[in-house]
Amino acid sequence: METTVDNNLIxxxxxxxxxxxxxxxxxxAVKGIKRIQRSHRQIKAENVFRKTIxxxxxxxVVLVMGILLTLILQSVLSxxxxxxxxxxxxxxxxxxxxxxAYPFILGTILTSFLALFISIPFSFAVAIFLGExxxxxxxPNLLKNTVELIAAVPSVIYGFWGxxxxxxxxxxxETKIGVQPIGLGIFTSSLILAVMIIPYAASLGxxxxxxxxxxxxxxxxxxxxxxxxxxxxxxxxYTKSGLFAGILLSLGRALGETMAVTMxxxxxxxxxxxxxxxxxxMASVIANxxxxxxxxxxxxxxxxxxxxxxxxxxxxxxxxxxLTKQFTI
Amino acid sequence: MKIGNKLALAAIxxxxxxxxxxxxxxxxxxxxxxxxxxTDNTILGAGATFPNPLYSKMFSEYNKINGxxxxxxxxxxxxxxxxxxxxxxxFGASDAPMNGKQDSxxxxxxxxIPATAxxxxxxxxxxxxxxxxxxxxxxxxxxxxxxxxKWNDPKIAEINKGVxxxxxDIQVSHRSDGSGTTNxxxxxxxxxxxxxxxxxxxGSAVNWPVGLGGKGNEGVAGGVKQTPGGIGYVELAYxxxxxxxxxxxxxxxxxxxxxxxxxVTAAANIExxxxxxxxxxxxxxxxxxxxxxxxxxLVYKEQKYNxxxxxxxxxxxxxxxxxxxxxxQYSGALNYAPLSAKAVAVGDAILKxxxxxxxxxxx
Amino acid sequence: MRVNSNVKYRIGKSTGFQVLTIGLAFxxxxxxxxxxxxxxxxxxxxxxxxxxxxxxxxxxxAGGGVANALLxxxxxxxxxxxxxxxxxxxxxxxxxxxxxxKLAYWSRLCVDILQGVPxxxxxxxxxxxxxxxxxxFSALSGSAALAIMMLPIIIRSTEExxxxxxxxxxxxxxxxxxxxxxxxxxxxxxxxxxxxxxxxMLSVARIAGETxxxxxxxxxxxxxxxxxxKPMQSLPLLIFNYATSPYNDWHDLxxxxxxxxxxxxxxxxxxxxxITRKWKVQL
Lengths: 329, 363, 283
Description:
The complex is a heterotrimer.
Chain A: H1 2-11, H2 13-82, E1 92-93, E2 98-99, H3 102-133, H4 138-152, H5 155-177, H6 186-210, H7 214-222, H8 227-238, H9 240-256, H10 259-264, H11 282-289, H12 296-328
Chain B: H1 3-29, E1 42-47, H2 52-66, E2 69-74, H3 77-85, E3 91-94, H4 100-105, E4 110-124, E5 134-135, H5 137-145, H6 154-159, E6 171-175, H7 180-192, H8 194-199, E7 212-214, H9 216-226, E8 230-235, H10 236-241, E9 245-246, E10 248-250, E11 256-257, H11 261-268, E12 292-300, H12 310-324, H13 341-352, E13 355-356, E14 359-360
Parallel strand pairs in B: 1-2, 1-3, 5-10, 6-7, 6-8
Antiparallel strand pairs in B: 3-12, 4-8, 4-9, 4-12, 10-11, 13-14
Helix pairs in contact in B: 12-13
Chain C: H1 5-27, H2 30-44, H3 49-53, H4 67-97, H5 102-116, H6 119-134, H7 139-164, H8 167-175, H9 180-191, H10 193-208, H11 212-215, H12 235-243, H13 248-275
């Protein structure tokens, strides 16, 4: 009985409308509350997300600061023991606690700059080829991808190949020119480094050369210049700093390269007497001697070497990047 | 499926498979189906390359016997001591007893247990010379100091009468890392040659006047093997395994001795002090090889540090005990000399003195 | 019109230079092709099922394989990716959304610095941050070192991909009332996914072959191990250790391992290039 009364109450037209309108209002109100709740949740989530990405960006800065700080803190022991003379000390004698980094700094500079010299003609040739002569087409594309693959090969594989194939060849070469045929040494490591750093200057150089405005080139052509003259007098001066930046990037890569160099440089802590002599670079001596630096000053001296390496590579890379940014922004 | 769902599914798949791989490998790796993950069946050691061929054979055989996995990285004696000092390994291995600097760097006493004896041979690469060359202490010092530069130098010729020596340059190879082998070699040179003692001295890593650096005994052996006219000092096992020629050396009694198991055993047959540290170089024995050396396993005297369990310590000490007893049967085939009875006895006494929380572990 | 000799000379120089350039350009890929052929030739004969599933044997015994290194490499790379990818993408998002704030400037500077840090220095730092405090070598510390090296590549490629997306995309999403995190996660990232993915794959290819950071963190392990808190072997470490040894069996193992590593890295790079043909990401 009550249900029929209820039914009547519910199903009578005026009541239905009333109920519909009321329930619609309630639904709207509920929706409105839910929307506000969702908005609150979304705003909270949004804030959390924003804060998270700020934290992550901050974490990067903290990470780099941390790296620098760790290196500095760990080198303090060695700096106290040897002082600034470390940088030009010529003897590295862990037994007598005489640490001089000069042989390694020299080794690093020799290998990197020699590698740079050898690789520059090739990098520039690739850059000019892809940027100026044949900017489009399947063959240039193939060349571009292959050159980039050079950078993809792991350095330990370059080292192994160098050890197995290049060293005997260099040995034969050294016998021919009358130098002691060791095979390992500064010359061999420079050769391998040169191959490894070609892609960096090449790809940056290529994008710089492509950006030379064509009206400059056309003006030169209309004055009767040959292709070579346009390259020499218009393109190269225009892209001077870009090409220099590319060279710096290649140099930065060469300075920090560890594995390939360690395997073919001969690992001698003496000052190399010629480019065919064995030597050591900062990175290779750290790789060799880190796990067995058996007293704290020794370990600290190696880390000081790492600090010097870090600062040098960072400065060179920064200069290169700043020069590049001038062109791309 | 939407991109977001696809990525989520991929991520879940990676995490799940990674997790399965980890737990699967962990469970499969520990061999016996132990319930708890805390029974650690791996012992970590690092150090000398000198005994590495023997140790790797010993550890592989021990694993077959009782399933214990020994991860031994041959990074050089200096490395072994350094890692033991940082307590990142369970035991170290060194051919050079710890010196004063290393003793002061390490925070707790370390015991040396003799594990094997071997010879440091003078290995050379002269494919055209078929006879075994003779060397004297002064000639060896002269070569490694850089004073004797060519193979047909009169000083080498006069102790090798009748051998046709080529006129190529001598290319020295030495260790680039901290090495007990270097220690044995330079200790010997200091004893027999005043020039060497003043100019270079002895130690695990010295300031070599000439030569190429190689990492580990492996590196020096590789350097000599690949360089015509090369010469270097390596452990006997490395020279034999690589079919490299090595020379006879004149000992204190005046005889030219070929390095071998018997000549090393003769040199090692001396009194071993209670702490195990003794040098076998420049032996008095008439048929002993002058550049012989012991190689030690180093462990902390007090084993309760860094949450090490008694179980793990017992396993490790039993391993070392096995190495000095049953494990010695493998030395002959690999050209290492088995320990003398005196050395084994000293080793046992030292092992019994290793304590865990003050109580000796082995009875 | 007669072309006078001066012009002929200039044209000759120009053609000569062109020939020289083409010659040098193609000459520099010769070493690469030579290396590839040599390694594949030397290594492919050593790879068989036995090689992939066996552990290295003690010195002097023939046979043996690189199973521990293969598994170790996969685990270390996997862990490094898990650590680096979220951080990298989030930082890339921040840098692309805020071009001018001070934090963005410093953060960008630090990412550039990080890209130039030599791998051995990263290894040293990881040793002091993770190996010493945890009291031992572990795959995790190796993964962390590799993650530090992956970060700059992922961050730069994410940032540049997202910057290339048109602003109208973002503005349309905002206009529909979507909150910031939805705009990024549901609209921007899916649009830029191929660029981001290519950055991730390039970073994986880069660290797959890295040895120096692992020298003093993961340390090496002759046994098959899945425990990330313990030392682990990896392919580049194995190649380095065995290549510098004098044993011929170990040299064979190193050649086979080099072949596998090389093919993996090359395939990853080629695959990435195929994907990014639409999106030109300059790194």
